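Homework help board

Subject: predicted structure for assignment chain

Our instructor gave us this sequence and asked us to write out the predicted structure in token form, then describe one feature. I got the tokens but I'm not sure how to describe them. Can anyone check?
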Amino acid sequence: MVGGSKFILLDEPTAGMDLSARRKMWDMLKKYKHDRIISLTTHYMDEADILGDRIGIMAHGRIMCLGRSLFLKNKFGVGYRLSMVKKEKEPNTVVEGFLREQLGDEVTRLSEVSSEIQFQIPKHLSPKFKTFFEVFDQKIEKLGITSYGISVTTLEEVFLKVGHGIKDEKEEEVKHGVDVSAKELDKYDTFSIATAPRRWALVAFIE
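My token output:
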């Protein structure tokens, strides 16, 4: 960076760093990224999400998909995660039935530990959210819930889904992102890179 290079390759630059040093590295990369392209490989999902203007996921030495973080989450995400805090630590037998009644039987319980319970909601059910949350807010006390929050698919979930055989499961969904030529990539306003012979990797492009 000191030499003014326009294209920089970084291979897991924050590996082994503590959280404070890693954050300073992120700030430095964001500060000096202007007028250059940085290709960064990492196994930290949050690092790729924060730094990467475009993110490529590699599996078995091949680029499986490439795009912006939001694009990848929308295309390969499993939906939404609804997290709730219960009034009591005992198992809640009411809220799951309420969710299925309001949203559908595709709602899945992910975990219930101590006073927290989490559910996974498929993304195609999102049109029901407006009505659901209005009713939920009215009945939250009766359901034994004190607070809740909802979040979209994390990049880690996308990474695991793509890496564990999404090509076999939904090959058509990733066809445009697998081994495409530089000319085809140009249509998506992105970059083409040579794939490295590593089994797992995240490649973050910082513009």
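Reply (TA_rk): Your tokens look well-formed. For the description, you could write something like this. The chain has nine helices and nine strands. That's the kind of observation they're looking for.
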